[in-house]
Amino acid sequence: MNSTQQNLQQYKIYNLFHPTHHAHPAHLKIREGSLTWEDLDQNDIDIRLKWVGMLHRRKKNPGKFMMRLKVPNGILNSEQMRFFADCVSQYDEDVGVIDITTRQNIQMR
C-alpha cells in the first residue's frame, strides 16, 4: 500500500468510523445556506458523502449531486414512489430525475 492509499485509509477510519462523527458535520450549514459545496474539503466530497450515498457529478454537472437509496428487496408501494416523484418534481426535467437501477434501488439526480 502506497502512502496515498494509507492517508486515504486513515482519513476513512477517523472521519467515517469515529463514533462521534456524523455523515457530514456541515449538513446544517449547507441547509441554511451559510456553506456551499465549494467550501467542502475534497476528501469530504469524494469519501464521506459517497459513504452515505451522495455522489458528486463533477464531470458532467459540477455542484450537482446524485443520491443512491437502497430499496429492501426492490419493493416499493405507490405512496413511496409518489414521495420520490414529489422530491424531484420541483426541479427541471433535465435535473430532477429518478432512475430505478438494475439492482432495484433508486437513484435521484
Molecular structure report:
Strands 1-2-4-3 form a 4-stranded antiparallel beta sheet. Strand 1 (54-56) and strand 2 form a beta hairpin. It has helices spanning 3-17, 27-32, 42-51, 78-89, and strands spanning 54-56, 65-69, 98-100, 106-108. The radius of gyration is 16 Å and the shape is globular. The termini are far apart. It has 2 domains: 1-52, no CATH class; 63-109, no CATH class. It is built from 4 helices and 4 strands; from the N terminus they run αααββαββ. 39% of the residues lie in helices and 13% in strands. By secondary structure, it is an alpha+beta fold.
Please tag this protein with its features:
109 residues; alpha+beta; 2 domains; 4-stranded antiparallel β-sheet; 4 strands
Structure, briefly:
The protein is of the alpha+beta class. It has helices spanning 3-17, 27-32, 42-51, 78-89; strands spanning 54-56, 65-69, 98-100, 106-108.
Record the SSE blueprint.
Blueprint: H1 3-17, H2 27-32, H3 42-51, E1 54-56, E2 65-69, H4 78-89, E3 98-100, E4 106-108
Antiparallel strand pairs: 1-2, 2-4, 3-4
Helix pairs in contact: 1-3
